[in-house]
Amino acid sequence: MKCLSLFATLHHRCLIVLILAYICLANHAVNANPTNLNELMTQADELADTGAFEAASAKYKTIWELAEKQTNKDMALRAGLEASASYAQLQQWDLCVEQAKKVLALATKVGNTEIQATASKVLGVAEYERDNIIAAIHYSTDAAELMEDPTMKAKIYCNIGVLYSYQGHSKKAITAYQQAAQFAEITKDSLILGVVYNSLADVYAKRRNMIKAKDYYLKSKTLFDAVKDPYHQMLGISSALPYYIVDSINYAIRLAEEGEIIAQAQKDTIYQFSFASELLKIYTEKGQVTLANAYQQKCASLHAQFDLPSEELAIYAKNYSELLLLEEKEQLALEQAKEAVIHFRNAGDVNNELVALNHLADLEDQLGKSQDALKTLRQYFELKESLQTEVEIAHIATLDSELKDIEARRTVEELNMEKRTWEAEKRAWEAERREAMIVGGGTLFFVLFLLGALWQRQRKNRLISKQNVLIQDKNLQLEQLNHTKDRIFSILGHDLRKPIIAFRGISKKVNYLIDKQDYNTLNLLGEEIERDADNLNKLTDNLLNWALAQKGVISYDPKEVNLAEIVGETVSIFERVISEKSLSLGYDIPKDMWVLVDQNALMTIVRNLVDNAIKYTPTGGQIKIYAEHKAEGIQIQVEDSGVGISEDRLDKLFLLEKDKSQKGTEGEKGVGLGLHLIYELIRINKGKIDVRSTLQKGTTFQILLPTVV
């Protein structure tokens, strides 16, 4: 019985083992069979085609894992790429990035350039969606370089331009769009080229280079008209319309009407509303009230029937407000102006909200609503302050991230360079050693070995020395960057905020003084408000110009500029304060003296120098401005009889450092940003600046600018 029982037990166990073995073999056969992988891929593709992306992504992931186990790299790459695409459809960006990175690593390993390019493209989109803009640019750039199709290259470079624009790097955006244009021109793809030109126009418009913006807008419109794609035709008309309104208002009317007809044919409500709103604006400017009212009613009808974007409603409300003013319906115009502010705020369009607030304050002032006007102006200044703060913080954050990216790349490059140098030296040394062994035997080999070792040590010491110098330079740059960042935060947190706070409660003070009929104090308060507002305006202008200069996007459009006209126009701004301090300000500039500079930059330079001279010259003092031809260009001198500058301050006068600035003769406060900005603008305009000063005797700023050849 025991034998039978033992036999039965063994038989049972053998049977189980056989069954398990059969199952394993069967599974292996299924997994190893490429036909089954193809069937699974077909099923996954069908799920994706029907929009069942969640189920499709799971199946693609399974295929990826099976194909990896079988070392079926082609199937793994295809499945992995499809899985990441499905995650993108589901907006599961973290999973998309994770899978696409695996695909990119495998494609790089096997040398599949096409999959590398596609995976990099997917990663560029996914990282953008995750707000990792630097990573998105990195992957998109890799994709563009790896792609062979010129059309695809053009599209990706266009996306890179959008990413740089999003970061505020307009110069890099322009470079990317120009690369996109080159590849679009190769394929003669008018549609893509039109989109690229339209994007370039947007960048130049933001940089306030309206000549180039207009040129590219018109080029894009011409291409869109040739393609006869309705959507892009409307885009081209909408973009170019503002320039035609300035150049030829009658042609602008025909253009807007053409756009309206296309929009009606396409049943595109937003464009219908947009073109009707533009025609409302045009006819209001022409004073044709009947036609303006007809288009206003069209806008009102569309507004009543459809949900429209806040930005379009804001533009309409502003245009309608202008029409109501023309009809002398001031109260209704005021209501529409308020609507414009609300809609721009809802759209998140801060720049246009500032314009709308300014317009509203003017209207309220015209209608005698002084309290409301003051409240609106307070909103205007608070919004402007927050916008400037955001610009500075975003700029500093971008500088920090770029610095880290540059340092990381430099570190990798230095390591690779050191590795290549070491390998080259090793190969050279091995060749020398073999030659020494053949020619001279052991003794010569030993001598060469010692010489090689000494040479290697000297080489290594030289490399270490160079690396130490590089590290010191980097540390100095980081220290300067942190110092600048701290100074800017100080300006934003104290110097900019302080005058804003001073405006709070001003209406209560005014009302109180009016009630008390204390008009003398009221006049003094008015003068104080005017001074604070003037200082605030100067500071915000300087901050904005400084930020643009640091980002490399400040306008530099050198032209022939008449120096006497610029100086005369600038000096006239300061007539009141010159009179109040009883200063003597004279300038001797030949009327035929021309300089080759950016006009806005020159006005900013002269304004800041004159402002400084006035600030630090005591009552009854003298300020002189004169210029003369030199071999290198035009030399301009701004000389004052002021308090002067000490030698220790002269050394760091143009740096953005704390406690560098000193108070003026009447307690005027400076932040030290003006002179730093002057230095940057003169550098950009290919000039030089020097300063000489003697305490209690005065200061002379000497500028050298290029002249017209």
Features:
709 residues; alpha+beta; 5-stranded mixed beta sheet; two-stranded antiparallel sheet; 28 helices; 7 strands; 6% strand; globular; disordered N terminus
Account of the protein in words:
With 709 residues, the chain is an alpha+beta fold. Helices cover 77% and strands 6% of the residues. It has helices at residues 2-32, 34-49, 53-69, 73-89, 93-110, 113-129, 133-146, 150-167, 170-187, 190-206, 210-227, 230-247, 249-265, 269-286, 289-305, 310-326, 330-347, 350-366, 370-439, 441-495, 497-503, 506-515, 519-551, 563-573, 575-580, 599-615, 647-650, 673-684, and strands at 559-562, 584-588, 594-597, 622-629, 634-640, 688-694, 698-705. The chain has a five-stranded mixed β-sheet with strand order 2-4-5-7-6, with helices on one face. A two-stranded antiparallel sheet has the order 1-3. A hairpin with a 4-residue loop joins strand 4 and strand 5. Helix 7 packs antiparallel against helix 8 (150-167), helix 16 (310-326) runs antiparallel to helix 17 (330-347) and helix 17 (330-347) runs antiparallel to helix 18. Residues 1-34, 439-449 and 489-495 have low confidence and may be disordered.
